[in-house]
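Page 42, continued from yesterday. The earlier attempt failed because a stray header line got pasted into the input along with the sequence. Redoing it now with the clean sequence only.
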Amino acid sequence: MIAMPGQRERQCSSRSPCRMKVVKFALLSALLAAFVFRCHASDVVITTTRVPNGTNQTSYFAVISAKGGCTPYKWAVVAGKLPSGVRAQESSKTTALDLIGKPTVAASYSFKVAVTGCRGPVSEESYKIVIKPETHHVVDLRWDASSSKDVAGYNVYRGPDGVKWKKINVSLIASTFYDDSTVADGSTYYYAATAVNIKREESRKTRAIKVSIPE
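This time it went through. Structure tokens are written below.
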């Protein structure tokens, strides 16, 4: 055994305390692992800082996401209230809270959302949604035609974050343009389109585009 500088050379035997050193190291490692786990669990944080406004009697969809910590998360509206006609629903993996519904009263709504990690840490964020009586803008969407010969039509998807999507056309679109008149003032949306063939097989979404609606 080669001694380190400033260290005495020692020989291990049945009476040597070397074995105790190993136990101490194992215990230290266990404590360190537990400490790291507790710190990691406390990192749950809501990443969505703003949700879109809405229009009265028009379908509403927003997503509040969180990351870090450990799942499953538990979500709750802890202050204020959601727009009348809109409900909160945890995503299947609990990493997001979906706001879904059709607003029934035009007004301004303020509320606070809290998310709790599986071991207790909490993150909170406040939001404001303005439900407008009617829309004042229309988004004119256009895309290139598919090169496939058996295309039956197109679908248009809209989402609040470019990750989660909701189809906004009722039936297949025969043309390569679509006007979305259900947008709310002061909101941001993401759009993507797909092609559908005569067998009802759907292509991947196009690259998403971001549209900001003026106030």
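Notes: Confidence is low (pLDDT under 50) at residues 1-41.
Reminder to self: strip header lines before submitting.
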